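TA notes. Do not distribute before section.
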Amino acid sequence: MATQPRRGGVSLPERRGSSKPESGILAKITSSPIVSRGRQAACDAAFVSKKLLRSTGKAAWIAGTTFLILVVPLIIEMDREQQLNELELQQASLLGAPPAAPAHK
């Protein structure tokens, strides 16, 4: 007697009422055109917000790197210039020269 090899797996019982169409109130509500339009509007809103968030992230990246490359060195250089002016003013006052009016106010 030749036996066939066993195949693994579990067969699940069929769901109740799978052969007849659902006629409950929940089925009627979920299949209504208002719900389907609302679902479509929610999907569209999610899509638009995802695109907006992605483009906002790209814009923030561009603004941040531009700030680091252009503005931060400018701030550092302006601070150095301010320190140099203060040092010259201090040296002039130590040497006895009359204090000069600051160039920038």
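Switch to the second chain here.
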Amino acid sequence: MRTFGVEEEFLIVDPVNGVPLPLSAEVMDLHGASVRVAGPSARQMLSAELHQEQLEVITHPHSSLDSLATEILEGRAYADSLARKAGARIVALATSPLAVSPHPTRNERYDALVEKYALTAREQLTCGLHVHVSVGSDEEGVAVLDRIRSWLPSLMALSSNSPFWNGQDSGYASFRTQAWNRWSSAGPMEVLGSARAYHALVADIAATTVVINPDFDARLSARHPTVEIRVSDVCLDPRDTVLIAALVRALVETAAREWAAGVEPDRVPAMVLRQGVWMASRWGIRAELLHPATHRPDTARHVISALLDHVRDALNDSGDAAYVEKARHRILSNGTGATKQRQSYDRNGRLADVVTDAIGITHQEPDDRHTSANGSPSWTWRPLAEAVA
């Protein structure tokens, strides 16, 4: 079974007015003190991000969906418990609904980014979900990257959770994608065919001196034996995070099997894929997406069904199929995080309500967790208790 893990980026916000607060250094100090007390038993991994209004929570590698989901919930609760001590909360919003002037985190790396990228870096207060899946080699990893390209906009649509930007409705389901694509190396790649070609491309990009580690939509991890899929917004509902992680692992496994069987990748040009990215960013699951098989518009419901059919064998083999089917129906019926944010705003026309409602959805835990006969998690969910240990 391939191992997988996630990195979730969160906003640190005022629990009353919803404004992002530059408190990551204080939260990280509290984390450091907690780790010193817990010692080797410390479980949670936290990291600062480009701006002080952000915090990243990182899971360990897991083999089962159930254990990964448990750590996702634990990580959200732990980070929030630290933020509370600083008078704040963490919330899973991929952009801030309220206007904000972010405060860059001061270190050598981020200072260089802000100096080089100017307004693009200064405005880049965006929160994503990154999924890492283990691969046996760089060669297998690049073969996977070549074969999952067309399916990535579907993940973006399912995770869309950033309709607001600078205090107004952007019109997009994932405006984070629009902001993120201002980075010089963001977006889909062409089919590369080999690890050698991939590393040559990375070296050529580095030689331009514009960027060292490219921000491709999916890439080989520079630090781990994994592929890293980076297209998703951070998900408001933790159940959606679990869904995206399950689908990404299934996509990686399906692509690796195709490579082993000699199935050639779809060589659709990256420029065509960019149109699919734009459609997913604009509409989420509310309208048409580009179908990965035809690269022509089709309903979101049909495209998501095609995605599940494509990875069905891998989902069955991992025991994740039942959970994914249930989550798919829930999202198609109730909407994504972008839907819920707009519903919150429509009630009273207050962006602060969008944030406070989102805090409640961010922090959920299963009221009844058990593993079904086929190994997939089956849960009833309730809000997390207000007092976090």
